[in-house]
Amino acid sequence: MTYDIFNPPQLGPAKGWNNAMLAPAGGRVLFIAGQTARTADGTFAEGGFVEQFAAALDNVLTALDAAGGTPADIGRMSLYVTDVQAYRDNLKELGAIWRPRMGRNYPAMALFGVTGLVDPEALIEIETTAVIPPPDGGNDPRPRQA
After folding, report:
1. How many whole angstroms separate alpha carbon 83 and alpha carbon 74?
2. What is the mean pLDDT of residues 61-68?
3. How far, in Å, CA of 73 to CA of 23, rounded?
4. Which CATH number do you get for residue 24?
5. In a domain, 143, yes or no
6. Using CB atoms within 10 A as the burial measure, which of 14, 18, 108, 115 is most buried?
7. pLDDT tens string 3-36
8. Which pLDDT score, from 0 to 100, does residue 81 have?
9. Which domain holds residue 54?
10. Residue among 30, 11, 120 at smallest CA distance from 75
């Protein structure tokens, strides 16, 4: 999906995100629920904040792929973290995780510091919205079933 990106100069420079992204007509909107570092067997990815970020992002991308999307289709992402300072302290490591998975795609993003998440072990939860091109270029109005 190719978005029109808007970063008005009045908002200052966008670094690691975009301020607004407009999807072209005809795309299918995919809402991906908040994903944590929980694995398929119900356990959590081992490690700290950086490892949980990688696992949560991988879970987002797994759901996206199941719906026929790619990282470029992501237009909005919200990060909920239990420790904002851990996010700030690990920006370089998080960038090294981001680039191989997301490339140069920087959605409209928000980061929220929270006191806790539903999964008590979770340090981060990532919620995403993507717009996926229709499988036939827009001619089939029927919804796809996963």
Report:
1. 24
2. 92
3. 9
4. 3.30.1330.40
5. no
6. 108
7. 778 888 888 887 777 778 787 778 888 889 999 9
8. 98
9. 4-132
10. 30
Distance in angstroms (rounded) separating the CA atoms of residues 61 and 94: 16
Q: What would the two tokens of residue 12 be?
A: 């200052």
In a domain, 142, yes or no: no
Specify the number of domains making up the chain: 1
Q: What is the pTM for the complete model shown?
A: 0.82
Cα–Cα separations (whole angstroms), residue 112 to 8, 61, 125: 23, 20, 10
Mind giving me the DSSP string for the chain? --PEEE--GGG---SSSBSEEEPPTTPEEEEEEEE-SB-TTS-B-SSSHHHHHHHHHHHHHHHHHHTT--GGGEEEEEEEES-HHHHHHTHHHHHHHHHHHHTT---EEEEEE-S--SSTT-SEEEEEEEEE--TTSS---SPP--
Q: How many residues does the chain have?
A: 146
**Rounded CA separation 119/46 (Å):** 15
Q: Which residue has the tokens 């690990």?
A: 90
